[in-house]
Every structure is written in structure tokens, then in C-alpha cells.
Amino acid sequence: MNSLHLKALLLAIETGSISAAARKLGKKQPQVSQWISDLEIDLGVTFFDRSGNKTTLSTAGERLLPSLTHTLSQLDMLLKSADMIAQGEPTVLTIGIENYIPEQTFTQPLALTLDLPHLNVEVYRDEIEQLTQDLRDGNVDIIITHESDTLHHQQFEYCRLGHYKDVLASSPAHPLAALSIVTTSDLSQYRELILGEVNEHSDGFSPRYAMFSDIQPLIAMLKHHKGFAFLPAEYVKSDIESSQLVKLNCDFEPAGIIRRVELCWRNGLTLSEQGSQVIAAFKKTHQLSV
After folding, report:
1. What's the domain range around 17?
2. What is the rounded average pLDDT for all residues in the chain?
3. Which of its termini does the chain have fewer beta carbons within 10 Å around, N or C?
4. Which of 86, 101, 126 represents a domain boundary (last residue)?
5. Same domain, residue pair 41 and 118
């Protein structure tokens, strides 16, 4: 079955005329008529009801039209994907994002990436160690992580994007909220609510803590006066504005804790047109402070 014959059939249906379809294809009308007749013989159906000089779509043609449209659309995607592969363009892009990096870092760039019509995208979250290993092993194309202590990455390309701030927050009814300035000694008297992976707790500000791998239950416990937390300002902005939470002023980090973020990608990605566009989108449209 010839794909050009299927295209001729769809054009004849869309234009309502085999002659018009032939003109669009730059072919002679008898040739296109023969193609459609051959398709009818091969498939055992009649696409058009012919009466004199009048040709209308048959009932069978109406039923098969959605499948015909879908088949040609998939064929077009196949041809474009094959062309991209031949030119070294990625057809699937995998992006890894470190746990707890706020959405402001990647929402707009990711939206622009999804605007590329022939690029499939896979996104996942994980810890920085696993993401870095995945990039070294070639299992991911791009990772977004908190800035590491490494001065220069030699196995992949990278750039610093910017930073966001962690703020100290609690419920307005929590005893810490009554203090004008909070010290580390004050914090040590209450439970610290920590956003992180269970079993990965390091020394915090209090001997008592609760570890959460999900931000929502953590914030719910903050609102129930169960402790204090250092969280990305973006995560608690609306709750602070609505007075469900308050930002505490601490003497050791009065401006908030700076969290720097970097973008890393596999060598050679920016040599492809689409790879270059995606990296440029992350560099230019993130909403981090610089």
C-alpha cells in the first residue's frame, strides 16, 4: 500500500474532488483516480459514491476517515523522527531534577521544551548523587541540582543558573513566633520539620525532628504548630501572605539561606538544534535570582 495513494485519498476527501486532489499533487486526474480505485480493491470498500459527475463520500469512507487521518499523521511523525535521528537530533530527552528544588527553577523552561512538537520528554526526581551518576552513565540528558562543591565538572557540561532562598517558618501560634529574633538556642527547644529523604538526616537545629519526603504533609504539620522548618520561600509564600504561617527572623541567617542551583548536560547535546534550544530555555527563562 503506497503512502502517496493514501495522501491522494485524503486530499480527495478534504477537497471534495479527485481532480482537485490531483492538481494539489501535481498529478493527472486519471492517475489519481486509479490510485483510489486500487485502494478500494485492496481494502474491499468503496470510499466514494459516484453518480454522474458527482462524487460524494460513502458511508464506509466516513467510517474510515478518522483512521486514515490518524495513519497519515503517524506516518508523518515517523518520517520526521527518522529524519531527526539521521541528523543526530534527539527524539527523546530525559531530564532529572534534584528532590526539593522548587518548581520556579524549571516550570517555564520545561513548558518551552514541551512546545517542541517532535521531541518526547521524560522527567524524574532523585537525589543529587544518583542524578550525577545517571548523567555520567548516559542515562539522562540534563540534570538540575543544587550547586556541588566541585569547582569544574570534567565529564559533562554545566552552568550556574542562580539561587533561591530558604526561609525559617512556623505557625503564628507556635512559641517561636512570639520572639522578635530567633537564636539557635531557641530552635533547639522545639521540633524541626525537615524536607528530605528518610534515613538521610544530618545534624540540624534541634535534637528532635520529623522527616518528610513530601512538602504537603510537612506544611500541614507546620500549620498545626508542630515545629519549625527551613523551606524554599516559594513553597510557603501564599501561606505566609494568608497568615497561616509566619516568617521567623533568626540572628544567624537574617536574609535567609541561599541555595544555589546549577544545570548540567551531557557532552554534545548542544550540537543538536533541539538540544541547544532546550539548554537555552533553561538558561534564559528560569525564575531564580541571579
Report:
1. 3-86
2. 88
3. C
4. 86
5. no
- pLDDT tens-place string over residues 214-255: 899 999 999 999 999 999 998 999 999 999 999 999 988 777
| C-alpha distances in Å from residue 265, one per residue of 64, 137, 155 | 45, 12, 10
C-alpha cell at position 281:
530555555
Domain for residue 290, yes or no? no
| Helix (H), strand (E) at residue 65 | helix 59-86
Nearest alpha-carbon partner for 203 in 216, 194, 212: 194
* 8-state DSSP, 269: G
**To which H or E segment does residue 31 belong?**
helix 29-43
Cell of 15: 477537497
Residue 50 lies in a domain: yes
In a domain, 9, yes or no: yes
Grid cell listed for 154: 570534567
Instruction: For residue range 130-175, list pLDDT tens digits in order.
Output: 999 999 999 999 999 999 877 778 789 999 999 999 999 999 999 9
Same domain, 158 and 174: no
* pLDDT digit string, tens, across residues 172-207: 999 999 999 999 999 999 999 998 876 555 678 999
Q: Is 147 helix (H, G, I), strand (E, B) or coil?
A: coil
Q: What phi and psi values does residue 230 have, to the nearest 5 degrees?
A: -95, 120
